[in-house]
Amino acid sequence: MKIHVLPRPARTLLLGVCLALIPGMRTGFAQAQEAAAVSASAAGHWVGDGEDWQYIQPDGAPLERSWLHDNGLWYYFGSDGYMKIGKHKIDSHTYFFRENGAMAVGWAYDYEEDVWYHAGEDGRLAKGWLLAGDAWYWFNSSCEMYHGGERMVSGHKYYFFENGQMAADQYVGTGYYDENGLRDRRYDMTIQGKRRPDKDEQERITKALAEAPREWIRAFHESGWEMMFYTDKKYFSAPRTDQGIFYVYHKTDTHYRKLKFTNPDTLAMAFGEYVAWATGNDGDANGFMADYGQYLAQSSIAQPLPSYFDGNISMQFGRLFESFCSEELRADMRRNSPDLLRYLEQTLKITREGRKPDLDELEYEDFLDEWGAGSEIRGPAGDESLMEKQGPGE
């Protein structure tokens, strides 16, 4: 294994060496930088404990103010000779180093600051607009992802959900935002009733549909469906069940293509019934019910419907879809029924590529490997070939 030590590289040097490591992207400039890196290689060793790690060179001196390329990962050592962790500005660019010291590429989360970053292939943190996983995100001048509210950008007002995604082909309250993140009143929800929705109801609608896949909300309108909020109506039905009276706050009319609701909190479940109809999951032909039943038996937080609705497959799928739209319940499903989660992602045609992960996904290496990001998290101590060698992340 070759370990390349680079003395204080600028971005061009770092990018040049990175490109040199990628087949088919070797330029004369990159080849020259690679040659320089190889000539400066040194078989040093890691020394340290916890977060305080140094890299000792053959002459016994710790590496200082330098980059280190070790086992496919980049590290940086400051003037004190210690490996950097967290966000740091080096020369004219800003980088984020994970808890094991490895330079982040892609999505990165700072647990102490509760902040998300996104790094390019060269490790440089994003500023301004970023398109990732078919969603738009905005990063401020400190490279921090903006989330949870409106923001003026270049003279236009955009809305960003708590997960950081710009509202596009989605609802913010009863208002519809088009693919460019701008209001399109043609698809606003229809209000049925004399009373207008109050601020609390508007916020609950936004929360309920925030993580409903935008592709499905767009398909909802393109196929002629309409969303209707009955503000003067309490509920649509209230059958007696084994759990007592169960109030049903929505109705999905597949004949006239109307999605009607009275309570914003059940809107995700109502929309899930539309998805069941659109994907053919309004019957049990695909057999999701068996896996769903097993998941409910294993989960301590997922709430099953009363047995009264056992034969209502559309409603069961709607409840499952509602769970999928909750980060907490997705995490629970990931732990207790990963096959069911994969089934949902395949049914909804959702891809992981580029999208911001849930926080719990950062703790599951099998899911990280699906992004191709597992090696970035593990670091030297996570490589079995280096088990005899101490390193960051151990």
Describe the protein in words.
This protein is of the alpha+beta class and 394 residues long. It is built from eleven helices and 21 strands. The chain has helices at 11-20, 28-39, 199-209, 214-222, 267-279, 288-298, 313-324, 327-336, 338-347, 365-371, 374-378; strands at 4-7, 45-49, 52-56, 66-70, 73-77, 86-90, 93-97, 106-110, 115-119, 128-132, 135-139, 149-153, 156-160, 170-172, 175-177, 190-192, 226-230, 240-241, 244-245, 250-253, 258-261. The strands form nine sheets. A four-stranded mixed β-sheet has the order 16-17-21-20, with helices on one face. Strands 1-4-5 form a three-stranded antiparallel β-sheet. A two-stranded antiparallel sheet has the order 2-3. A hairpin with a 2-residue loop joins strand 14 and strand 15. Helix 1 packs across helix 2 (28-39) and helix 5 packs across helix 7. The radius of gyration is 25 Å and the shape is elongated. The model is unreliable at 1-41 and 365-394 (pLDDT under 50).
Summary keywords:
394 residues, alpha+beta, 21 strands, 28% helix, elongated, 11 helices, disordered C terminus, 4-stranded mixed β-sheet
Q: In what order do the strands lie side by side in the largest sheet?
A: 16-17-21-20
Mean pLDDT: 83
Largest beta-sheet characterization: 4 strands, mixed
Give the number of helices. 11
Structure in a nutshell:
The chain is built from 11 helices and 21 strands.
Can you lay out the helices and strands and say which pair or pack?
Blueprint lengths: L3 E4 L3 H10 L7 H12 L5 E5 L2 E5 L9 E5 L2 E5 L8 E5 L2 E5 L8 E5 L4 E5 L8 E5 L2 E5 L9 E5 L2 E5 L9 E3 L2 E3 L12 E3 L6 H11 L4 H9 L3 E5 L9 E2 L2 E2 L4 E4 L4 E4 L5 H13 L8 H11 L14 H12 L2 H10 L1 H10 L17 H7 L2 H5 L16
